[in-house]
Amino acid sequence: MEGFALSVPHSGSAAARRTRILALVAALLQGCMFSPGPYLDTSELRGKGPPESPRFELVPITTRLVATQEATRVVEKLPPELTGYTPGPYLIGVGDVLNITVWDHPELTNPAGVQQSSEASGRPVRPDGRLFYPYIGEIQAAGLTIEQLRNDIAGRLARYIENPQVDVGVNRFGGRRVILTGAFGKTGPQPLTTIPLSLPEAIGQAGVAAGADIARLILKRNGREYRLDLDTLNRGGAELDRIYLKDGDQLHLPSNDSRRIFVLGEVISPGPLSFRSRSMTLTEVIGLVRGLRQETSDPQAVYVIRGVGDLERETAQVFQLDAESPAALVLAAHFHVEPQDVVYVGAAGITRWNRFISQLLPSGTFLRTGINLEDDLNR
Fold first, then answer.
1. Cβ–Cβ under 8 Å, residues 332 and 284
2. pLDDT at position 146, please?
3. 195-204, 284-293, 302-311, 351-360: lowest mean pLDDT where?
4. Is residue 300 within 8 Å of residue 237, measured between CB atoms?
5. How many domains does the chain have?
6. Terminus of the chain with fewer CB atoms < 10 Å: N or C?
């Protein structure tokens, strides 16, 4: 309304002048056709927009749409090559520190005497896979089971000791391990021990960071990547503990910074929401932002705006939920939003009008002041 000049004739009574001013203001309001605040005009979504605008399709959220969405959702299953792997006996690896005990021969078990701890007296497996032991010298250890190494040492010591009783244990594991990267609480190498390590146990030991995306865990094995949706698999009752890790496996847990939805409009706490699972329902989204503003929102104007990769060739979709009906809450509980969706809740018509009037009040005050001043001058 900038640049508008109000001119009121001085002739006639004060009441007549007020009537003319009010009529002029009413005409001004009718001509402005302006409603402050965000407002989603759906006329363009129905093909009435300019030809150069992106192509959109307005899709009501109905029972049929929800049923179609559920039917097209992929059921997550465990890859059989992962569940089919069964760990064998532990194989000694380079970097392991072994504790070799020969009963009744402390000079072999702990040559430095009781003042030296068993940890310090351990026998490390060198990079060449071998270790040194008294009387028998160099011996191959890497690649053998603990039982195989024990029998080998006992057989060689039998030349010097009658019926040697040998025991072999691992003081420190370091030869065989898996690598954890990404949004784990503790990243880096995690050793494999004599007890087989399952996928849930590895995740539990490392912990999961607050910003982790558990729907996109990546297991790399033998040059191949397996993408595992832990959230869906757990909900589906998949036996994740059937996946055992092997030497050289890599686990990467990405963050969910790039997987967000954006909630705008007449909600109590608008802003971005991060995914911690594959999908979220519209009910969950509305609940996380503490619901709609009861006094200002339009329950018939709940939209989910979903973009596409190429707006010039593809048609984006705008899903509309009429939340005025109780049945709509059932639909919202089954309608799944996707990353990068925009959830928008429009304002009620009376809300837009009240905002318009609140912006017009300074102009209205100016008009009333002018009328009162003119009355005072005429007196």
1. no
2. 94
3. 351-360
4. no
5. 3
6. C
d(CA 119, CA 150): 19
Phi, psi of 211 (to 5 degrees): -95, 20
3-state SS assignment for residue 335:
coil
> Under a CB-based contact definition with an 8 Å cutoff, are residues 155 and 165 in contact?
no
159: burial class by Cβ within 10 Å (0-12, 13-18, 19+)?
exposed
CA atoms within 13 A on the CB side of 72: 8
Angle at 33 between CA 28 and CA 37, to 5 degrees: 120
Q: How many residues would you count in the chain? A: 379
Q: What percent of the chain has pLDDT over 90?
A: 38
Expressed as residue numbers, the domain containing 199 is 80-87+177-253
- Asked if 190 and 231 sit in the same domain, the reply is yes
- Beta bridge partner(s), residue 91: 145
Looking at the DSSP assignment, which residues form a beta bridge with residue 131?
Answer: 139
**CATH number of the domain within which 122 lies:** 3.30.1950.10
Each residue's pLDDT tens digit, 175-216: 889 999 999 999 999 999 999 999 999 999 999 888 888 888
Average pLDDT over residues 92-103: 91
Q: What is the CATH number of the domain that holds 297?
A: 3.10.560.10
Conformation bin of residue 358: beta by default, left when phi > 0, alpha when psi is -120 to 50 = alpha
Distance CA 35, CA 118 (A): 81
**Residue 378 within any structural domain of the chain:** no
Tokens coding 76: 């997550």
Look at the pTM and tell me if it is higher than 0.70. no
CB atoms within 10 A of CB 199: 23
330 and 295 housed in the same domain: yes
Q: Is the model more confident about 165 or about 308?
A: 165
